[in-house]
Design goal:
Layout lengths: L18 E3 L8 E3 H6 L15 H8 L6 E3 L3 E3 L11 H12 L5 E8 L2 E8 L10 H17 L3 E7 L7 H20 L4 E10 H4 L8 E4 L5 E2 L3 H8 L10 H6 L5 E2 L2 H14 L18 H20 L7 E3 L8
Parallel strand pairs: 6-7, 7-8, 8-9, 8-10, 9-11
Antiparallel strand pairs: 1-2, 3-5, 4-12, 5-6
Helix pairs in contact: 4-5
């Protein structure tokens, strides 16, 4: 009678999500996923920083249980009827099923080492983190919340640039996000920009590169355009690794390169120095006489009121939400 040993039979196939091969150029190690998650998705052999989702990023940065997401039901529409290899709505549905998000950014309020902050994180896994009207709107609302509550603003970028499926609506987000960021900075409120792999295109050309402090993760891809376009524009051969965070640090676009496991501590330290400036009281000694600016503002407001009826229903950003204000421009 054969003897049965109390061991499981050897399997020839294993779950596909058990191991991950490090894509580092000089690594290629097979990494156990549970250990990789414990190491914040950073290769313990070569230090390669894997891309992570927006919600994972927020969990790593903020105090546990303090984050309150805002506008989670805001989602894009398809005003252009855009079709490439497949219709834009089909691409949105596929990305939503893959990531569990309505669009490629998450914003809300939370605390970092007990300090209230407004934070917005982009998610590269949602259509390459491309910036459409909803992403731009969430970034703008994060800035407006920082203004309203006078708390620091943190934006974590991970984007391939503007979303071509939304055409001009996408390009308008550069102006919208920059206008809010400039208001935040003018109000004396700290703005920390964190550039992760990748930060390219319109994202890099707008809000990502204008923080009070620009932080990047090691070896992150940071550039405006691809190699062929950049080389053709300047008519010269590009230097090696010109699009990496280390090159940007040497040339002033990045202030600090911080490994992921030190990023939370680094931002907390910076915010302890970059305090929110107090609101200055109006000067009561100045006379309240003739003010050309006040008159022009009144005229502009009156004209806007007269033309508001015809413009009220115009499309104002390619996004809508269930009971949520549609994004602006």
């Amino acid at each position: 009678m054969p003897v049965r040993l109390p061991f499981r039979p050897r399997r020839d196939a294993y779950p596909p999500d058990l191991w991950t091969k490090c894509p580092g150029p000089k690594c290629g190690e097979m990494l156990f996923n549970k250990q990789l998650d414990k190491n914040m998705r950073v290769c313990p052999h070569c230090g390669h920083h894997f891309r992570i989702s927006a919600k994972t990023r927020i969990d790593q940065l903020l105090d546990a249980g303090t984050f309150v997401e805002r506008d989670s039901d805001l989602q894009p529409i398809d005003p252009l009827g855009f079709v490439d290899s497949k219709p834009y709505p089909d691409r949105l549905v596929a990305a939503q099923l893959q990531t569990g998000l309505r669009d490629g950014a998450v914003w809300g309020l939370g605390q970092l080492n007990g300090r209230p902050v407004s934070i917005c994180a982009m998610d590269f896994f949602f259509m390459g983190g491309s910036m459409g009207s909803v992403v731009g709107e969430k970034i703008a609302r994060a800035g407006e919340a920082a203004l309203e509550n006078r708390i620091p603003l943190i934006i974590v970028s991970a984007s391939g640039g503007a979303r071509m499926q939304e055409g001009t609506y996408s390009l308008m987000q550069l102006v919208k996000t920059m206008s809010v960021v400039e208001r935040v900075k003018a109000a004396g409120i700290p703005y920390i920009s964190v550039m992760t792999d990748p930060t390219t295109g319109g994202t890099f050309a707008s809000f990502a590169a204008v923080g009070d402090v620009n932080i990047a993760e090691p070896n992150a891809l940071i550039r405006f355009a691809g190699d062929r376009v950049s080389a053709g524009t300047i008519g010269e051969e590009l230097p090696p690794n010109y699009a990496k965070a280390e090159f940007q640090l040497q040339h002033g676009f990045v202030d600090r390169i911080v490994p992921r496991h030190k990023l939370r501590e680094e931002i907390s330290t910076l915010l302890s120095y970059l305090v929110v400036q107090p609101i200055e009281a109006p000067d009561q000694t100045q006379p309240t006489g003739f003010s050309p600016r006040a008159i022009l503002s009144a005229i502009t407001g009156a004209l806007a009121g007269e033309s508001g009826g015809g413009m009220g229903n115009a499309t104002n950003g390619a996004a809508s939400g269930n009971g949520v204000e549609a994004p602006r421009g």
